[in-house]
Amino acid sequence: xxxxxxxxxxxxxxxxxxxxxxxxxxxxxxxxxxxxxxxxxxxxxxxxxxxxxxxxxxxxxxxxxxxxxxxxxxxxxxxxxxxxxxxxxxxxxxxxxxxxxxxxxxxxxxxxxxxxxxxxxxxxxxxxxxxxxxxxxxxxxxxxxxxxxxxxxxxxxxxxxxxxxxxxxxxxxxxxxxxxxxxxxxxxxxxxxxxxxxxxxxxxxxxxxxxxxxxxxxxxxxxxxxxxxxxxxxxxxxxxxxxxxxxxxxxxxxxxxxxxxxxxxxxxxxxxxxxxxxxxxxxxxxxxxxxxxxxxxxxxxxxxxxxxxxxxxxxxxxxxxxxxxxxxxxxxxxxxxxxxxxxxxxxxxxxxxxxxxxxxxxxxxxxxxxxxxxxxxxxxxxxxxxxxxxxxxxxxxxx
Length: 399
Fold this sequence. Notes:
By secondary structure, the protein is mainly alpha-helical. The chain contains 24 helices and no strands.
């Protein structure tokens, strides 16, 4: 209860040092409480949105024998990695926490979302069933099932499941984001905006809430509002790879601010060369400029230490543009092995298979066709493809 009270004070913007001063006498009088001051420091960073220092502090705590394999700490660490856009480590920590406590429900909505975004829909379905067996009176099982529906493109069902989760817990940020994303993809943008704004009110330090709102503004061609919001996020949460990329995303929508977008993306990639969203947006910019060789180099570099469906698919698109058909097929195949539901990779592969043995004339014609639709078309997308791109890249969360 005392720890809950400490978290409550920190959430109300009471400074960490002030909270820690209240515990000095207790720490000195009770044995084995030397970890408490570091714990307070860690969660003070969490509540001020300083994800990097929060992660480092919790990692140092986790190494102490008393708190090793502590489920609460692992859950917090998983959530922080998620906020910092590090999906791989976030999933890893959620899995560790789940193995230690098979009845864990807290944070499983975020875990389910991350699995769904990676195309692991069978795992999401299994997770949802397991959570429902534990309890159907928490928001998390409904959100996980909603993520499965959303990424299966059953938006009406995702909307219903998100609404059910909100009924059970009106403060569930993940439920609000699920419902907002479903409404957006169903074309009900104004309703979606209300849900994203409520999510921002509840979690002002979570970038994915702002991403959802900005995506709505861009979908309704409200570029000015999107720019104001992106600038506010940049000033509020600081100049990190995620906020730089978010601002660049809005700048890419206006021809006047293309150069600014390029500068912002270069800064983001200097900070974090592995940040997938920044790589995707830089590739989009290079595609517009028809700098395919530069794009290929960028994507190969990004894929050297990680494997991601979208990056493999875009690399396939770029290889098509420079007539490297065999390797393009390989990249589309890798993308599909990572996410069998990725429609654009499937379309790219099918085009390549049709062109395996055509006449020279047909080859030329198809290459022209791909330069017109495979590049900007695949990156910018038609209406239905844009929705899918939003599913993959823009739905509250950072990769």
